[in-house]
Write a structure and sequence with these properties.
With about 300 residues, this protein is of the alpha+beta class. It is about 25% helix and about 20% strand. Strands 1-6-7-5 form a 4-stranded antiparallel sheet, with helices on one face. The protein has a 4-stranded antiparallel sheet with strand order 2-3-4-8, with helices on one face. Strands 9-10 form a two-stranded antiparallel sheet. α1 packs across α8 (about 215-235), α5 (about 160-170) crosses α8 and α7 (about 190-200) crosses α8 (about 215-235).
Length: about 300
């Protein structure tokens, strides 16, 4: 699933092509991606200008100049691109062979297209999603109060580590530290990849009870989380299978991963074998030497 860095890259790369443009037409090709809303409601967005694109956690918000906004969640395999007219994003070479059609005919809809916003005097914003776990929500200008967004925790890159400590501590939850960081109501945007990377950088075992981590260690963890997220953004996101940038290219952050996806391989720090376990219901890789188990 795209995490904060991947969604931020998508936001940055589609924004110049959409901001200031007027929605001419909106087509929902798979209705279940838009719960509790209808095609008729969607048509009320025609004629509105997109004035801003905001990221909140793993969500994107398209703000219009009216009292309406569109919230997008990419799910597991969702992708956004801007193509089919003046102002489109040039398509670059794609890696997977099964997406040759996407490259060969950039003016046509890509495979698994689910939602299209056609802009006046410009291109189309296309939301494609192979596994259809993505979601689209129609809401008012006060999008922060939408049920999906109002429960999100702070943005980890909007505060320095000490400010995050003041906002989020003390922690009384006895769940594992990995489960807590993955909890979007605690902190918004981090998923499995950047949580594993951050815990390794901080030297914290993923099974450590969150309530047992000291204030100093929390400060270290928040610093490491920010380092991991910023590196992900700098490297245009992590492509392991599905994620692509809007121009069709892969991210590069997978080349820098320290532990995620490297179970049974040597630790880059100490050379010992990395272990893969289940933590918080997710596949988790860590170094038992660099991240020793918590002891009472």
């Amino acid at each position: 699933m795209p995490e904060l860095p991947e969604v931020e890259i998508v936001r940055r790369e589609i924004s110049p092509h959409l901001t200031g443009r007027i929605i001419k037409k909106a087509d929902l090709l798979l209705p279940r991606l838009m719960p509790q809303n209808s095609q008729k409601e969607l048509q009320k967005y025609c004629g509105l200008k997109i004035v801003n694109i905001i990221r909140r956690g793993k969500y994107l918000v398209l703000e219009t100049g009216s009292s309406r906004s569109i919230i997008l969640h990419l799910g597991m395999t969702g992708r956004l691109t801007v193509c089919g007219g003046k102002g489109s994003i040039p398509r670059k070479k794609l890696i997977p062979e099964d997406e040759r059609d996407f490259q060969a005919a950039p003016r046509d809809n890509p495979p698994h297209t689910r939602f299209i916003i056609t802009l006046e005097t410009g291109p189309k914003l296309i939301f494609s999603d192979a596994r259809t776990f993505g979601k689209i929500f129609l809401t008012g200008s006060d999008w922060q109060s939408h049920p999906r967004l109002k429960k999100l925790g702070p943005e980890p890159l909007n505060y320095n580590p000490r400010q995050l400590c003041r906002l989020l501590l003390p922690v009384k939850n006895s769940c594992s530290i990995k489960a807590l960081i993955l909890n979007q109501s605690f902190l918004a945007g981090a998923g499995n990849i950047y949580t594993d990377e951050s815990l390794f950088r901080a030297g914290i075992n993923p099974l450590t009870p969150a309530c047992r981590i000291t204030g100093v260690k929390w400060l270290v963890l928040f610093k490491c989380l920010q380092q991991s997220l910023k590196l992900g953004i700098k490297n245009f996101g992590t492509t392991l299978r599905d994620y692509r940038r809007p121009d069709g290219t892969s991210g590069k952050n997978q080349q820098t991963l320290l532990v995620y996806g490297r179970g049974t391989k040597p630790c880059r720090a100490c050379g010992k074998t990395l272990q893969k376990i289940k933590a918080a219901g997710r596949g988790t890789v860590f170094c038992p030497y660099c991240q020793p188990a918590y002891k009472e």
